[in-house]
Design brief:
heterodimer; A: about 350 residues; alpha+beta; Immunoglobulin-like; five-stranded mixed β-sheet; about 50% helix; elongated; B: about 600 residues; mainly alpha; Cytochrome C Oxidase, Chain A; two-stranded antiparallel ribbon; 17 helices; 2 strands; about 60% helix; metal-binding (chain B)
Chain lengths: ~350, ~600
C-alpha cells in the first residue's frame, strides 16, 4: 500500500512540475517570445560554461580526495613499466581532454546566437582534415610502441630460475600448489578430483606429486626479488587471478593452462611500511564473474625473504602425506580435517 | 523555441488539425489495430520501438538503482526492494544471486533492447524514409515483423524475471561454462534458456530491420538524392545496419553452440570440469571460443550503439549552429573506417584470456587505429560549431553534451585498448566508467538529442522546454559525478561485478565513494522519470507545432505535412537539388536553403 502512495506522490510531483514548466512557457509568450528566446539562449550558454568551470573544479577536488587511495608503488618489477606507461597515457589523454573540452565550451560561449551574428559558411578544408588525421595517428603509433614494448616484456618467457607455483580457481576460492623438493608439479586429472582428499585431482601414480604442497585457503607464499611463474588453472568455470599490487592479471580457464610470471619487489612487511597501513595484505581478487560467490573469492599473497620462506616451507607437510598418511600420524590427520570441512561447506553452498 | 512557432492559448480550438491529420493516400479509415498496433507505417513502427525502448530503459535503470543500493549501502536494508523483488530481497536485503541477475539483465536490456532496438530501431525507421524521400520502407511487412520479433524477445526476457531459479545471471556476456552449467549458478537454469531464446528472436528482429534499412537507403532515394546528398544520419544508419547484418549471425552461431552444450551433451565450450561434486564427461572444448564468437558481435555492437548517435548529433549540431557540418566527406570516410575496423578489434576484450601475445599485439594496433576516425569526427564537430550562430535549443544542448561525453569516454578507450595497460585495468571499474560514458550516456545523449529534435515531427507537438533543460543538466552532471570517480576505483584495481567489498583490505576504502555514487544514481533516475513523464504528457498536452519546419532545417522530413499520414507526402515526393547542409543566406533573409530548392544560376553545389 505504501508503495502505491509513494508512486502516486511521485506522479503528483511530476504533474506539478510539468504545470509550472508549462505555465512559465505561457508566461514567456506574454513577455514576447523573441525576447525570451534570446534570453534563454544567453542563459543556456552561461549555464553550459558554468558547468564546464565547475566541472574542472570538481575534477580537481575529486583528484584531491581520491589520490591517497590509489595503489602504492608497483610491487613487481614488471609493474614499474605499467606505472610509467599509465602516467604517459594519462598526460597525453589529459591534455587532449582539457583542450577539446575547453574548445567545445569556449565555442559554446563565443558563438551563441545573437541577432547580429550570421554563421560562417565553412564546409570543408582538406588541410585541416589531414592535420587531425595524422596527428592522432602519430600519437597512437607512439602509444602502441610503448604499449607493445611493455606487453612483450610482460608476456615473455619466464626466466629459467623462476619458482613455479600453481594456482587453481574453483567456486569460490583459490587453491595454491607448490612443487615441493623435486621442484616439479606432478600431473593432475580432473576426473581424480575428490573434495574430501584430493581437491586438485593429483595423480598419485606420478611420483612428482607425492611431495607437492597444497594450500586450500588460497594463501600464496612468494620470495622477494625472485621471479615466480604462476601456472593457472580452473576446476569449474572461468576465474581470473587478479593481482592489483603487482599489476598482473590472467584468466583461469577450465581445460586450458595459462601462465604469467613476475618478480616481487617488496615483502609484505616492507609494503606495510610503504603504505603506512599495518593491515596491508597483497590480495588475489577474482576478476572474472564466476557465480554468486564471485565477490568473496579472495586469496592472499605473503611475500617473504628467502630465509622466512624456507622456514615456512619446512613446516609444511605434503598434501599426499596429509591425506594418505598412516593413521599413526595423528597431527597429520588433524590437519587433513581442515580442507575436508572447507570443501564440505563449499559444496553445501552450491 | 523557433522564431515561427506561436504558442496557442489553452482555449484555442484547432479546427485545421482535422484537415491535416487525415489525408495521405489511404482515405479510408483504418481500424485501430491495423493503424496503431500491427501497423506497417514506418513512423508508427518507429514510435513502437521508441516507446518499448523507453519502457525497457525504465526497467533497466530501476535495476541499476537496486544494485547500486546494495553497493552503496551493503549493511542496510531497503524494505521497498522486497516489494519489487519479493523473495530475492527478503527483508529488504538483496541476495547475491539476484544481484548478479540484476547486473546481467541491466546490461542485456540497456545494450540490446534500449540502445540497439530503442535507438537505431526508432530512428532508422523514422528517419530513413522521411529523409531520403520515400513513402515507406522497402518492405513494410518485414519491418512490422521486425518489431514483433523484438516484442516477442522482450516478452520472453521479461518472463524470465519470474522464473523460480531467477533470470540469467552470468553477466550480459554470459560466458560459459558459468552460463552453460546449471550446477554453476541458479541463473544458468531455465532463466538462461529463456535468455538465449529471447536473444535469438532479437537477432531475427535486427536482421529483418537491418536488411530493410540497407535496401531502402540504396534503392528508394527520391529523384536527385544522390548518396553524396544524404544527411549524415542516413549514412550512420546505413553503416549501423551493415554492422548488424554482418555480425549478429555470428552471435547467433555462438548461442546455438551454447544451447547444444547446455542440452545435447556437446562439448564446444566445455572441457575438464569438476562441478557439483562430480567430474563432467566433457573434454576438448574451449571456453575461449565462445568469447571470440560473442565479441565478434560484441565489439561491432558498440558501434551499432554509437553510430546512430553520431549521425544524429551531426545533424543536430549543424542545424542548430546554422552552419553546414564540417568535412561532410571526412565524416563519411571516418564512418567507413570505424565500420571496417569494428570487425577487426574484437579480441581486445580478451587480452587476459591467455591469448598469443603476438595476436594480442595485432589487436592493440588495430584498436588504437580506430581512435583516429573517432578523433576526426570530434574535431569536425568542434569546427562545425566554430563561428556558428548557436541556438541552445534542448536538442542542441544534448548534442553538445554528446560531444563532451564522447570525448571523455573515448579517451579512456586508449588506455583499455593498449594491452599492457589493460592487464591491470581489465574488468575493473575503469572499464565500467569507460563504456558507460562512451556507449552508455553518450549514446543516450545522441538519442535524447534525436528525440527532442524529431519529437515535433513524430507527434506534431513539442516537449516541454523547461523540463528538457532540467533533464539535460541533471543527466550530464549526474553522469560525470557517477562515472568520473569510478576511473579512480578502477586504477586502484577495484574489480567490477562484486556484491560487497567490505571483506577486501584493498577495496573497502571506497565505501564512502560508493555510497555517494549510489545517491547520485537515485537522483539521476528520478530525473529520467521526469523525462519519461514529459515525453508521454507532451504527446497529448505539449505545445502544438504550427509551422512545417520549426527548426528551419534543410532535410526532407520537414517538407511533409505537420502530421504526415502513411505515405508521408500528400502529393508527389519532392525532388532534391542540393546537399543537406546548405545553411547560408538564401537571399530572402533566411539562413538556410532546404534540399528541395533548386540551385540558383551560377551557384555551385557543395
Amino acid at each position: 500500500m505504501s508503495g502505491f502512495i509513494i508512486i502516486a506522490l511521485i506522479v503528483l510531483v511530476f504533474i506539478i512540475i510539468y504545470q509550472i514548466a508549462k505555465a512559465s512557457e505561457y508566461a514567456s509568450v506574454l513577455r514576447g517570445e523573441e525576447k525570451v528566446k534570446a534570453q534563454t539562449n544567453r542563459t543556456m550558454a552561461g549555464l553550459l560554461v558554468a558547468f564546464f568551470v565547475l566541472g574542472v573544479y570538481g575534477i580537481w577536488k575529486c583528484h584531491e580526495l581520491l589520490i591517497d587511495k590509489m595503489l602504492p608503488v608497483s610491487a613487481s618489477e614488471q609493474g614499474v613499466g605499467y606505472d610509467s606507461m599509465l602516467k604517459v597515457t594519462l598526460i597525453i589523454t589529459g591534455l587532449v581532454f582539457f583542450a577539446t573540452q575547453a574548445i567545445l565550451f569556449w565555442f559554446v560561449w563565443r558563438y551563441q546566437a545573437t541577432e547580429k551574428r550570421t554563421s560562417f559558411y565553412y564546409a570543408h578544408n582538406n588541410k585541416l582534415e589531414l592535420l587531425w588525421t595524422t596527428v592522432p595517428a602519430i600519437a597512437m603509433a607512439s602509444l602502441v610502441a610503448i604499449g607493445l614494448r611493455n606487453w612483450f616484456n610482460i608476456t615473455s618467457q619466464a626466466p629459467a630460475n623462476a619458482a613455479v607455483v600453481e594456482i587453481v580457481g574453483k567456486q569460490f576460492n583459490w587453491i595454491v600448489r607448490y612443487p615441493g623438493h623435486d621442484n616439479e608439479l606432478g600431473k593432475r586429472d580432473f576426473r581424480k578430483i575428490n573434495d574430501a582428499n584430493n581437491i586438485l585431482g593429483l595423480d598419485w601414480n606420478d611420483t612428482h606429486n607425492l611431495d607437492d604442497i597444497i594450500s586450500p585457503s588460497g594463501e600464496m607464499h612468494l620470495v622477494v626479488n625472485k621471479p615466480v611463474k604462476l601456472i593457472i588453472g580452473s576446476r569449474d568455470v572461468i576465474h581470473d587471478v587478479g593481482l592489483p599490487h603487482f599489476r598482473m592479471k590472467m584468466d583461469a580457464v577450465p581445460g586450458i593452462t595459462t601462465t604469467m610470471w613476475f618478480t616481487p619487489r617488496y615483502t609484505t612487511e616492507q609494503m606495510k611500511q610503504i603504505t603506512g597501513n599495518p593491515n596491508f595484505v597483497y590480495e588475489i581478487s577474482c576478476d572474472q564473474m564466476c557465480g554468486k560467490g564471485h565477490y568473496s573469492m579472495r586469496g592472499t599473497i605473503i611475500v617473504q625473504t628467502q630465509a622466512e620462506y624456507d622456514a615456512w616451507m619446512a613446516s609444511q607437510q605434503s598434501y599426499y602425506a596429509q591425506n594418505n598418511a598412516a593413521p599413526a600420524a595423528a597431527p597429520a590427520a588433524g590437519d587433513s580435517a581442515k580442507p575436508k570441512t572447507d570443501s564440505v561447506k563449499v559444496t553445501a553452498m552450491k | 523555441m523557433s522564431n515561427d512557432v506561436i504558442i496557442q492559448g489553452p482555449g484555442v480550438a484547432h479546427a485545421h488539425d482535422a484537415a491535416t491529420e487525415h489525408h495521405g493516400h489511404e482515405h479510408h479509415e483504418q481500424h485501430f489495430i491495423w493503424k496503431y498496433i500491427f501497423s506497417q507505417d514506418h513512423k508508427i513502427i518507429a514510435k513502437q520501438y521508441l516507446i518499448s525502448g523507453i519502457i525497457w530503459a525504465v526497467i533497466g535503470a530501476l535495476m541499476s538503482v537496486f544494485f547500486r543500493l546494495q553497493l552503496g549501502f551493503p549493511d542496510k536494508t531497503f524494505p521497498i526492494m522486497e516489494k519489487f523483488l519479493g523473495e530475492w530481497a527478503k527483508g529488504g536485503k538483496l541476495s547475491p544471486e539476484f544481484y548478479y541477475a540484476l547486473v546481467t539483465m541491466h546490461g542485456t536490456i540497456l545494450v540490446f533492447f534500449v540502445l540497439t532496438a530503442g535507438l537505431s530501431g526508432t530512428f532508422s525507421n523514422f528517419l530513413i524514409p522521411l529523409q531520403i524521400g520515400a513513402r515507406d520502407m522497402a518492405s513494410p511487412f518485414m519491418n512490422m515483423l521486425s518489431f514483433w520479433f523484438f516484442f516477442a524477445a522482450g516478452v520472453i526476457m521479461f518472463a524470465s524475471l519470474y522464473v523460480e531459479t531467477g533470470p540469467a545471471s552470468g553477466g550480459w556476456t554470459t560466458y560459459p561454462p558459468l552460463s552453460a552449467l546449471k550446477e554453476a549458478s541458479l541463473g544458468s537454469g531455465v532463466g538462461m534458456d529463456l535468455w538465449l531464446i529471447s536473444m535469438v528472436l532479437f537477432v531475427v528482429s535486427q536482421l529483418l530491420g537491418g536488411l530493410n534499412y540497407i535496401s531502402t537507403i540504396l534503392n528508394m532515394r527520391t529523384k536527385g538524392m544522390a548518396m553524396t546528398r544524404l544527411p549524415l544520419t542516413i549514412w550512420a544508419f546505413l553503416f549501423t545496419a551493415i554492422l548488424g547484418v554482418l555480425s549478429f549471425p555470428v552471435l547467433t552461431s555462438g548461442f546455438v553452440l551454447l544451447i547444444f552444450d547446455r542440452h545435447f551433451g556437446t562439448s564446444f565450450y566445455l572441457s575438464e570440469i569438476f562441478i557439483g561434486g562430480k567430474a563432467l564427461p566433457h573434454i576438448g572444448g574451449s571456453a575461449i571460443l565462445y568469447q571470440h564468437l560473442f565479441w565478434f558481435l560484441g565489439h561491432p555492437e558498440v558501434y551499432i550503439i554509437m553510430l546512430p548517435g553520431m549521425g544524429m548529433a551531426s545533424e543536430v549540431l549543424s542545424t542548430h549552429s546554422r552552419k553546414p557540418i564540417f568535412g561532410y566527406f571526412a565524416m563519411i570516410i571516418s564512418l567507413v573506417g570505424i565500420t571496417v575496423l569494428a570487425f577487426l578489434v574484437w579480441a581486445h576484450h580478451m587480452f587476459v584470456t591467455g591469448m598469443s601475445p603476438f595476436l594480442g599485439s595485432i589487436f592493440v594496433l588495430l584498436t588504437l587505429l580506430i581512435a583516429v576516425p573517432s578523433a576526426v569526427k570530434v574535431f569536425n564537430w568542434l569546427t562545425t560549431i566554430w563561428r556558428g550562430n548557436i541556438r541552445f535549443t534542448v536538442p542542441m544542448t544534448f548534442a553538445i553534451g554528446f560531444v563532451s561525453l564522447f570525448i571523455s569516454g573515448g579517451l579512456t578507450g586508449i588506455f583499455l585498448g593498449n594491452s599492457a595497460l589493460d592487464i591491470q585495468l581489465h574488468d575493473t571499474y575503469f572499464v565500467i566508467a569507460h563504456f558507460h560514458l562512451v556507449m552508455g550516456v553518450s549514446a543516450f545523449f545522441g538519442m535524447f538529442a534525436g528525440i527532442y529534435h524529431w519529437y515535433p515531427k513524430m507527434f506534431g507537438r513539442f516537449m516541454n522546454n523547461t523540463l528538457g533543460y532540467i533533464h539535460f543538466f541533471i543527466t550530464i552532471i549526474g553522469a560525470y559525478l557517477i562515472f568520473w570517480p569510478m576511473h579512480y576505483e578502477g586504477i586502484a584495481g577495484m574489480p567490477r561485478r562484486y556484491y560487497d567489498y567490505s571483506a577486501w583490505e584493498s577495496f573497502k576504502q571506497f565505501q564512502g565513494l560508493n555510497s555517494f555514487i549510489s545517491i547520485v544514481v537515485i537522483v539521476v533516475f528520478f530525473g529520467q522519470l521526469m523525462f519519461v513523464f514529459n515525453f508521454f504528457v507532451s504527446i497529448f498536452r505539449g505545445r502544438k507545432v504550427t509551422v512545417q519546419n520549426p527548426w528551419q532545417s534543410n532535410t526532407l522530413e520537414w517538407t511533409t505535412p505537420i502530421k504526415p499520414g502513411h505515405g508521408n507526402w500528400e502529393g508527389d515526393i519532392p525532388e532534391v537539388h542540393r546537399w543537406a547542409y546548405d545553411y547560408k543566406d538564401d537571399g530572402n533573409g533566411n539562413d538556410f536553403i532546404p534540399q528541395t530548392v533548386p540551385l540558383k544560376a551560377g551557384e555551385e553545389s557543395h
